[in-house]
Every structure is written in structure tokens, then in C-alpha cells.
Design a protein that fits this description.
Elements (H helix, E strand, L loop, with lengths): L3 H5 L9 E2 L10 H18 L3 H4 L5 H13 L6 E3 L3 H15 L5 E5 L4 H14 L4 E5 L4 H4 L4 E7 L11 H10 L3 E5 L11 H4 L3 E4 L14 E4 L1 H4 L38 H14 L4 H22 L4 E2 L11 E5 L3 H10 L2 E2 L1 E3 L3 E5 L7 H16 L16
Parallel strand pairs: 1-11, 3-4, 3-5, 5-6, 6-7
Antiparallel strand pairs: 2-8, 7-8, 9-10, 10-13, 12-13
This protein binds pyridoxal-5'-phosphate.
The site of pyridoxal-5'-phosphate has 13 residues, from helix 5 and helix 6.
Length: about 400
Amino acid sequence: MTDFAQTRARFDLPQGVIYLDGNSLGPLPKAAGARVARVLSEEWGKDLIRGWNAAGWMGQPRAIGDRIGRLIGAPQGTVVVGDTLSIKVYQALASALELRPERKVILSDNGNFPTDLYMATGLIDSLDKGHALKVVAPEEIEDAIDETVAVLMLTEVDYRTGRLHDMMRLTEKAHAAGALTIWDLAHSAGALPVDVSGAKADFAVGCTYKYLNGGPGAPAFIYVAPELAENARPALSGWLGHEAPFAFDLDYRAGQGIERMRVGTPPVIAMAALDAALDIWDGVDMTDIRRTSIALCETFITEVEKRCRDLRLGSPRDPERRGSQVSFRHEEGYAIMQALIARGVIGDFRAPDTMRFGFAPLYVSEADVRRAVDIVEEIMAKRLWDDPEFKTRAAVT
Ligand SMILES: *Cc1c(COP(=O)(O)O)cnc(C)c1O
């Protein structure tokens, strides 16, 4: 059994804060500061340009990719880290479409995070080959998979509601129809067990600043199934994805396997913070994470529904159909969330009326959840949210 008291002690959380927003930005691991400081003073400061070899900077995208691979069921050497998730979505989609040249439909759902859909439409316009993005409701996805679909592109866990797609079943259905799959694991990696190999996913992408706690703007990851990697043409054919970057050939030749999904120079300082965050995962069993996360979510839902009649559950009630977050809806959700944050319970808000609460067992305990519910109850019962100071919207909600 994973020792969650010990993992919690490895985070630097401010006194008096109950942090229920690790689904948006994970908290600071205590070891990250010293690790980054060492990279600055010892590696960059003393090694200078030699750091690329001496400190292993050039190998980080693969080494860190392998550490993430363990958490998503990907074999060694199939995951690489770099860029932002939007870029990784674009790369995966461009490669997948080329592998199904006779088909023109990208199928996704309207619960997907907008950037994934924006990247798809941008790519369609650039390609100008008659592709179309078909977006249906999440519950209609399964029936919409047919022989016109080139790529099924889904985010496993809905960022607003926490609704969880059945990755295994939908991938199987897509393959039976001859389509490829891209799974966005932004709200899955570190939140629940994922098995990209077992599910036979073709491509998977995700970010590392949510449940993996890599820090604001930490680089994203991409997985390509080993049997496809040698045939996937990188649309973003940067020099570090070249077979021999330091040959400086004028002609591009894609690198071996997942290496080809690298683009440019890795963000070494950000990688150091991410690597320190991943140390915490070494002793963690994902089935413990899942069991504990479900227990925390269940306590929260049961208690909030019992004590705050005005809040409507915005997430699936069945824990097997939910990720590691819970949403409640209210017309004044923005003001209620600001009142909660003022009292130290940090979640966030998504327009028009959704309050999101993320439950990460690494640093959130049952006692935190109970204390958070007490505060929610008080804010609702006394209408403490009904104050002009809580109603002015900030740029980031
Ligand atoms: C968080 C998130 C993103 C963010 O993309 P960035 O390029 O890292 O800003 C993209 N897609 C999904 C599904 C997300 O949840």
C-alpha cells in the first residue's frame, strides 16, 4: 500500500490551504527548488555548453519519457517529452492522418478541451486535403465510429465534468472500423491507472503540470505505439527529431522510433523540476491512487449533496465513469469559488456555471475533504459568496 502520508510530506503546500486544483496545476514538490538550483549553479553555471553531454541534458526527453511511461502503461522507449500539449496533439494528429490517407474524418467530442479541437481545425486548413472534424456528444461517440473515420481523437477524462471514456472499448471499436486512435491523457496521467499498451492506443499525449506536478508550463509528452513509430512521419520535422542532428545534413531524415517526435531544444530547467516531481511517483502504485481518489470523491459528493442542496452534481455519479475530479454546478459558481478560495479551499471555475474540485491522494487526505465540505457548507448557508468582491472575474478562472 502506498504511504500517502509520506508522499504528502514531499509537497510544499501553504499553511491553511486545502488544495483541490491539482487537476489544473499540481503543487510544488519540496525537492524541485533544490534540483532546479543545482541545474542552474552546477550544470549551467559550471558545465556551460558541456552540460548537454556531461549532465545528460540531451537525453532528458527520453529518460523522463520512460518515467512517465511507467504511469501510463507504455513500454520503455515509446514516450518522449517536450513542447506543450497543443503541439503534441498536432504532431500526433498530423502523423495519424498520413497513415490513413484514403480517409478524411477526424472524430472527436464536444467535451474535449478546446485547444485539441482548435489544433485539429488549424491542421485541416493547412493540409487543405478535404479533411473534416466531426464533433459529437461524448455519449454519441461510440455510434459515430464508422468506416469514414481516419482518426478517433479523444480526451479520456473530460476537463469540466470528469466523465471518463472507456479507452479499451472505444479503441477496439475504432480499430475494427479501420481508424487510428489518439488519446489525450491530460487528466488521466497520474490521476488513474492507464494502460496504453493494453488498450492498443496508437498515439497518446498528455501534460505534466496537472496531476504529475511538473510546474507551470512543464513540457508535455507523446507516446506512439512501437509498431507505428517507424512509419509515422513527423509533420514538425525539427532538427532534434533528425536521425543524426549533429551531422547537420541539409536533408531531413526522421530519427529512430519515438526520437522523431522531438522537435527542438529541450527546456532543461523545466525538465529538472519535472524530474524532481516524478521522484515522488517512484513508490506509488496506481491502483492505490485510484482506490483512494474514488474514496475522496465519494466523501465529497455525499457530504456536499447532503449539506448543500443548491449545488448540483455536474459529474457522473458512478465512480467507474469518473476521473479524479468532481464538479458541482451553480449559477453563482464563480462567486462561490472565489469565496472558497478566500477561505483556503482552492478549486477553480469553468464557464458558465461549473466549480471543479480535483482530488489527488498524493497530498489530499480524507480530513482535508471533510474540512473542505464544512467550509462549502458555511459559505452556502450564510451566502458568504454574495459579496461584490467575489464577483469580479479575473483573466484566469
Ligand atoms: C490542459 C489541457 C491542454 C493544455 O494544452 P497546453 O498546450 O499544455 O496549454 C490541452 N488539452 C487538454 C485535454 C487539456 O486538459
